[in-house]
Design a protein that fits this description.
By secondary structure, the chain is α/β, with parallel strands linked by helices. The protein folds into 2 domains: 45-120 and 341-359, no CATH class; 133-337, Rossmann fold (3-Layer(aba) Sandwich), CATH 3.40.50. Helices cover 44% and strands 12% of the residues. It has 15 helices and 10 strands. The strands form 2 sheets. A 6-stranded parallel sheet has the order 7-6-5-8-9-10, with helices on both faces. The longest helix is centred in the N-terminal third of the chain and has 18 residues, at 27-44. It is globular.
Length: 368
């Protein structure tokens, strides 16, 4: 948008922080940024506000837009269908049109009086990577004859520290004979050097407890790594949707503090638009792929169930040519179709079309 002529009042990346202590530490900067944005709205009075995700800031901006008579187009809905349902009234009061990227979100909003449209998920329309396996192996120093397993422990350092040890413990204790190499795409939010040092330190500290030392290759492109991998192990988040659109089998894992996990179990409740049942431990599904499918098509190993033994048991049938592997590939293909747009060639084009419709001048009555 900046390349297209947008004037940047603040940078979103300067006010996006995860975690309670991180938010508190940067609170003065966040409030200054919000005040600057409100001042810009009052000064420039734009014809339309396009708000994208980022609910904690955008709900505040939407309130000021409403006061100023500026229509609000919101793209990528906050997950009010999972928790913080009380914020729904803010959407009803402040948002002119909600554009959603998951198919169950539009009926959820429309049933509650919000003008909403499913535009499709941007990842679903991306073409598959075209680089060949041989070229990919040569580019990253991989053995093309070995099986590759992709590891995606999260895009933030705290997520990596919570999830990567469990991944390394699991793959280091796989009781299989084939030679595997593990591809770990480095998110743009992480330091390559920090991640490499973290892995090396963990392996040195735990090598006595491993059946074999896993061969970890850091690579830059998650889509290509998922495309060429035999299977993947992925921390819950947007990466699971990316893996869904690629179509190879995967397992979802995640670990948070016991208190956070207990609170989440109490707070998360899905509406009728999302069919979801409890597992044997009383957990609702959290992986977006399972919510889109309306049933559990990929395993979820969360907190206490995220162990080396459980990981190996879930991964083993996905590496061989088993009925479980074939079924998951079929289920992923069917679920991906649900993310495709219905009214435009791609979701972003549809968002642009709707924005232009909202910008269209209101016809004035003819004078007699």
């Amino acid at each position: 948008m900046a390349a297209a002529g947008q004037t940047r009042v603040i940078r979103a990346e300067d006010v996006a922080h995860m975690g309670i202590t991180e938010v508190l530490r940067h609170m003065p900067r966040v409030f200054r940024a919000c005040r600057a944005l409100v001042a810009a709205l009052q000064r420039d009075r734009p014809a339309l506000a396009i708000l994208i995700d980022f609910p904690d800031v955008n709900f505040r901006l939407a309130k000021h837009c409403k006061r100023l008579g500026i229509p609000v187009l919101w793209f990528v809905s906050p997950q009010l269908w999972a928790w913080k349902r009380r914020r729904l009234r803010w959407v009803q009061q402040r948002v002119s049109k909600m554009l959603v990227i998951f198919p169950f979100e539009a009926p959820f909003y429309r049933a509650r009086g919000v003008d909403a449209e499913f535009v499709g998920h941007p990842l679903a329309t991306l073409p598959l990577p075209t680089i060949s396996r041989e070229a990919y192996a040569a580019e990253h120093g991989l053995d093309p004859a070995s099986e590759w397993i992709t590891l995606l422990p999260g895009s933030r350092q705290k997520e990596v520290e919570a999830n990567l040890p469990g991944l390394l413990d699991g793959v280091g204790n796989l009781d299989i004979r084939q030679h595997h190499e593990y591809l770990l795409p480095v998110a743009s939010t992480l330091s390559h050097e920090w991640l490499q040092a973290y892995i090396a330190q963990w392996i040195r500290s735990n090598e006595r407890n491993l059946r074999r030392i896993p061969v970890i290759r850091l690579v830059p492109d998650a889509r290509a790594a998922l495309h060429h991998a035999r299977a993947a192990i992925i921390a819950s988040g947007t990466a699971t949707v990316q893996a869904l659109t690629i179509g190879n089998p995967f397992i979802v894992v995640y670990r948070v503090s016991p208190l956070t996990f207990a609170l989440a179990k109490c707070l998360i409740r899905y509406p009728a638009e999302i069919p979801a049942s409890l597992d044997a431990d009383g957990n609702l599904p959290i992986a977006m792929v399972n919510l889109i499918a309306g049933r559990r098509i990929v395993p979820e190993l969360l907190n206490d169930r995220f162990t080396a033994a459980n990981l190996a048991a879930a991964l083993r049938p996905l590496l061989a040519d088993t009925p479980a592997r074939a079924q998951m590939i079929t289920d992923l293909a069917e679920t991906r179709v649900k993310l495709l747009p219905t009214r435009a060639s791609n979701p972003i084009q549809r968002v642009c079309d709707i924005a232009l419709e909202l910008l269209a001048p209101i016809p004035q009555p003819k004078r007699s």
